[in-house]
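User: Structure tokens for this complex, please. No commentary.
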Amino acid sequence: MPRRRDEMVPEAEFRSYYGQPIVKKPIWHEPHMPTYLYLGGLSGAASVMAVAARLSGADRLARASQMIAFGGGAAGAGFLVAELGRPERFLNMLRVFKVTSPMSVGSWTLAAHGGLTSVGAASAVTGVLPVVGDAATLASGVTGALMATYTAVLLADTAVPAWHEAMRELPFLFAGSATASAGAMAMLTTPRRLAGPARAAAVTGAAVETAAGALMERRLGMLAEPYRTGRAGRLMRASRALTVGGGLLAAVAGRSRTLTALSAAAITAGALCTRFGVLEAGRVSAADPKYTVVPQRDRLTARLGGR
Amino acid sequence: MDETPTRRMGFFTDTSVCIGCKACEVACKEWNDVPDDGFVFRATSYDNTGALGADTWRHVAFIEQDGRWLMSSDVCKHCTNAACLDVCPTGALFRTEFDTVVVQSDICNGCGYCVPACPYGVIDRRERDGRAWKCTMCYDRLRGGLEPACAKACPTTSIQFGPLDELRERAQERVERLHAEGRTDARLYGESPDDGVGGTGAFFLLLDEPETYGLPPDPVVTTRDLGEMWRWAGVAAFGLAGAVAACFLRRS
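Assistant:
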């Protein structure tokens, strides 16, 4: 039977149904979801920093980190609830615990983390039950490390090509970004001479975020395209410039209040750009059937040794 | 309900006999009271429905090719390993006694996670009421001993409903007959338990490559890699803790 193979094909190398998407775009809204991703990471890394500061006797820095962890977690949870189609049912998130659902694991982690950081912050402010407060803060170091990384699994555990295939690098991208964010906020809210470790965290985090982002784009092949083009591309480039600039500034930010503020602002803006950029790249990769069909065809061809 | 274990029920959609009448779309909407999905003139083909979504649980695709016209009624695949069900954080999505996958609308809180998780782009959130919706394989009708509305309404038996093992045998015979008649491009899609989703409860006989119908050529349930994802996240979490600790060690 004669047939033309290219009648509905936008590009020569793959076929589709009138160029329509195969997988659905993530419906998560801006600014809710990307802002939550930022705030959750900030809160998580700040908790880890609070523990390290507490254990090494940097009490002023510990106190600042605790407050950042509490504030970031509470604000983040608000954004997350507002994101739901039925916000009044947010407690259904704790109806079951499902290890197969990163969102279930994340909801329980956020609930525990929010509780622990609230107790820790309340005790630190009021001076009531200091032992309980310390214990809660120490425990929030564990939930905090999870908070800063689970969101990578949340995104990767989807059929969105640019997210799923980035499953190895996303946790490092987010962990680095979270560390930089927490360092930035902590150095901003701590006297300069006591903020050395926060500046070090900002530098380290910015370096890890930049390296993970570069590695991710290199390894993704054609799926790096959504991270490099259009709005997502602009966001990712802005993120890189701001993160690198902010990280470099953080290294010398001990010299002045202005440098500290500039560095913290750049790192924070960079971390936000990363989250908005990653979300947008995911949308783009889902909307174009090319990113679903071509990698799957390649996989089939490799498995079957050609059709 | 009776206590005898139920067999896995499914759909076999034989697109070689689909005439594109859309009776399945209409029957589905009527029985399930699915709201209007918009009257959009797409100007590409006779398909003005577009795609499966919260308000479209059966979707007839029309593909105009030289010398022939492909038509296919798409539906939720009711996967053996269903990503939507795996990732649902509330337990709103569940597996029924018929081995189908259904959303409990009184539990769904509209988190939307199932939407990008589905490798076929089936389930979607209805923005008017904030919850996720998709084909239930007419769960209520099955419980009442009836076949799903779409299969009942199909005038050409393109949509066949029954125990999945029987459907698989029937589909195998059908594809062999078509091959014998020289229609060598006939192939089954989703019938193999060895595919990336462990086989689908709703599978198809197609006359062209799956992507031509808007179906993914090699779908994989995303949660298959969940262990690997958590391992990398774990490494990153420990790395974060170590890096932060190092920042404070240098201080003392």
